[in-house]
Structure formats: structure tokens, C-alpha cells
Write a structure and sequence with these properties.
246 residues, alpha+beta, Aminopeptidase, 2 domains, eight-stranded mixed sheet, four-stranded antiparallel sheet, 12 strands, 35% strand, globular
């Protein structure tokens, strides 16, 4: 029996704690490696320095140096506290979810953005990598980014034939999620970020909700979304690591 099949079998019986929030079927890809200790499983992403756990006991495990993320409402992370402390994980970055409900909203149209093209994959990843850590935060590989481009889910803003702004989004049932958005500081047109956001919304008028996560310390971004009528959902995303970053 493979480790994945063992995980599935144990999953049916239930785990004490886990930080995996998606379908287990996604773990069958080649992008993950599985480690087992007793009746506990640890999944490491190969594209990111990120770990998911399925544990039945709180104890010290032999873990690689890695990051992990936790998702909870109203910062209710207490149930993970013992596991995190024993295994030397410390919190270093926090995000809050915001939402815009699609209720008769009127959004201006801009003619400043365009859909990304396949030959821009490397440039887009390099550009967004300046704003979002490629080590634990930016979760699209180049192949996945190509798929997003083919699905018209990547918008860009250019100046002097260079990418100066980009936005990636994903559709989930009746909602659309703004995965990443960033613009350069040295813009000639200061409305580029608003244009990207508006075009993203106008492209997805059929959905019920627009969702995103914003860094708790980024007051400028938080106020930007508030001015666009996004509100806080009290859902929090917290990142931890078990090593010191110098």
C-alpha cells in the first residue's frame, strides 16, 4: 500500500488535527512528497517550501525546515498551539480575508489592461515574485500559470512594453478569488491598480462574491479594498516556520 493510500485509509477514521483544506485527490500529483511517523502524515509541496500535516497526537516530530499555513475564523488557532510549540513553529505573517458581494455594484470600465499571453509567463512570475515570496506564498508553477493564461485568468498592465501590473484570479463555484495583484511603484498612470481590480470584477459579473486575502500589516492595500467596498470576513490565514530566517 502506498503512503497516499495509507493516508486515505487513516483519513476515513479521522485525525486529531490537520491544516489541509482541499480535496485529498490533489495530493496524488507529483508536486507533493509524503512523510509518515506512526499514525501521522506530513505532506511537503515540491514547488513551495510548505508543509501540510495530518496528526493524531501532539508530540515532537522529525520535520524538515519548512513553512505551514493555518486557516481559521476570528484567529481561532488555539487548538494548534501545542503542536506548534513542541515543533518550534513561530508565526511570522498574517492575512485577513475580505469579500465584495455582487449586489447591484457599478464598476467603471478601463481600457488599460489586457489578458496575458503565453510568452509572458516568465516575466509575470518574475514580476509577481518581487511582491510575493516564491518560497512559500506564490503558489503557481510556470505550468499552472500557463493554464491560467489559457483560461483568461491573468490580467496585466504594461508601460513601455514592460509588465508594470498583474492580477491572477481563480473561479470557485459561485465565487471568484483574487489570488495575486501587484503594481510597480514607478507607474506613470497611478490608476493601474484600480483598473486591474475593476476589470477583474467586470470580467466576473456572474458570480455572487469576490474574495481575497490581504496582509494584516498592509494598511494601504486594506484601505484600497475598503474604498472598493470590500469588507472583512474575520477569516484569517496565518503562516508559521520552524527555522530562523537570517
Amino acid at each position: 500500500m502506498s503512503l497516499f493510500d495509507e493516508l486515505l485509509s487513516t483519513f476515513e477514521k479521522g485525525f486529531l488535527l490537520s491544516n489541509f483544506y482541499e480535496s485529498l485527490a490533489s495530493l496524488k500529483s507529483q508536486n507533493f512528497s509524503i512523510q509518515k511517523e506512526g499514525n501521522n502524515f506530513f505532506i511537503y509541496e515540491k514547488n513551495l517550501h510548505l508543509m501540510y500535516f495530518f496528526i493524531n497526537e501532539n508530540k515532537k516530530f522529525k520535520l524538515k525546515n519548512t513553512h505551514l499555513k493555518l486557516l481559521a475564523k476570528n484567529k481561532a488557532f488555539d487548538k494548534f498551539k501545542e503542536f506548534l510549540q513542541i515543533n518550534n513553529f513561530s508565526n511570522f505573517r498574517n492575512f485577513t480575508q475580505m469579500i465584495l458581494k455582487n449586489e447591484k455594484i457599478t464598476i467603471p470600465n478601463f481600457n488599460m489592461t489586457s489578458f496575458a499571453e503565453l510568452n509572458q509567463v516568465a516575466e509575470i512570475k518574475a514580476f509577481l515574485g518581487e511582491f510575493f515570496s516564491l518560497e512559500y506564498l506564490f503558489y503557481f508553477s510556470e505550468e499552472e500559470l500557463k493554464e491560467k493564461i489559457l483560461q483568461n485568468e491573468v490580467l496585466i498592465y504594461t508601460e513601455d512594453k514592460l509588465i508594470k501590473g498583474a492580477l491572477i484570479f481563480s473561479k470557485h463555484l459561485n465565487s471568484v478569488f483574487l489570488d495575486f495583484i501587484a503594481v510597480s511603484k514607478d507607474l506613470k498612470n497611478k490608476k493601474a491598480s484600480f483598473a486591474l481590480l475593476c476589470d477583474f470584477i467586470n470580467l466576473n459579473k456572474e458570480v455572487l462574491n469576490f474574495k481575497l486575502f490581504v496582509d494584516d500589516t498592509n494598511e494601504k492595500a486594506i484601505n484600497f479594498y475598503k474604498r472598493s467596498n470590500f469588507i472583512n470576513t474575520n477569516i484569517n490565514l496565518a503562516f508559521y516556520r520552524n527555522f530562523n530566517e537570517f
